[in-house]
Amino acid sequence: MRKKTFKSYLLLLLAINPLWSEAPLGYEIETIALPNVKKFNVAGMDVHPDGTVYLCTREGAIWKRSQKEWSRFAQGLHEPCGLKVVDHGNILVSQKPELTRVLDRNGDGYADRYESITTDFTFWGNYHEFHYGPIMDEKGNLFATLNLQTNGYQYQGNAMGSSGGYRGWLYQVKPDGTFIPFAYGLRSPAGIGWGPEKTILTTDNQGGWMGSSRLNVTEKGKFYGAPVSQIDIEGWTPDRVEKEMTVDDFDKLQEDPACWVPHIEIANSPGNPILDNTNGKFGPFGGDIFIGDQSNSNIFRAMLEKVNGKWQGAITNFITGLQCGAIRISFAPDGSLWVGQTARGWASKGGKPFGVQRITFDPEVMPFEIQKVNITPKGFKVTFTEPCDKKSLRDIHGSAYWYAYNSGYGSQKIRTESFEKAPYNLSEDGRTLVIDTNLSERLVFEFDLGKLKSKSGKSMVNQKFFYTVREIPTKEGV
Length: 478
Description:
The chain is mainly β and 478 residues long.
């Protein structure tokens, strides 16, 4: 895929995704007034159980917002891209050279001590060596991800490279400080979060070895596509990675994503995934994964399920037209979704250079949307939030495709198939639509349900879903 110029890329974004906001019924977008500072590029976000919102900015500060008042908690950090709130006086932050604990020991609301948690990875001074996370499990284990390098560092073909030191890895730090390289093959893993059954989710950005952006269920010891990170494994020299292994060799080693994220149509630079465990406070999508995108200024949903022991599922859009790149999202105790935004360094379709927005749900207004998509032995079962008006159903058209695996910058769709007038059946209550199709593994199935309406006359905002098939069940519900 030929790399586009900045101008042509931006024009393509604008052509596909308009600048106005579009959200399902019941959802409201509120723009939050910012502190009186020149720049406020949010790159990390977490919410305390009492509702205090903590943010870190690429300018090197940590801010907090409580009772609608902003105050600066810390400053002087090296381009932090993630944080975790332990309590009001204990904030974990991923700045470029280290994972750091920022403490307020005297309780005056301002940090007075910075402690290094780990520097057991290498920071070479390359601008692209971003550091994302951390997330923490119930035992106190921390997990974070490390970006590959660009501009003059060791490349593999045209892909981003590594000078060593666990670039392109997800790592773990145990409570005693032990550093553990956890999983590898990541390119630009800008998001990390918890998924169903305490799985670790990472998002990766389209580029070299990544045909499109992807959502990974990231497991210990496994490889996720970008070969250069293997130079940190004993016995794997740069020559072995560059010269002795073929593309097919690496393809056999890699784990496919749980979901491919269609390039530009859904996302281009996805941020952190977050599981909706709000118990309905954020609407009828409990158990789904919400993810913001920096380039498209949107939020999309992933609906994961385990089939034959592997995680896979469907992607659909959720809200478009946010004011800026939605790199960070976090749920508050009241069920609202906070969105931290930046456009620094990359085009962001929303138009604003940075910002913070908050999305709330009105429980008195039920949206008409796709609620769940599940695979069946013969196709897909789509469940709606409200009964569908059978009269609004038209011919259902679909397609299937995959993405090429190589060092090129992204991929066109390959192995493409089309499904005209796919057979379907709507349940008697109008809540479930069963679509039959010729399933195959390692394909993304895309279906457009058209301009459906509910029996109460509501319109659907997001009509498309994209299901990544890794496994096909032998019977319903497997």
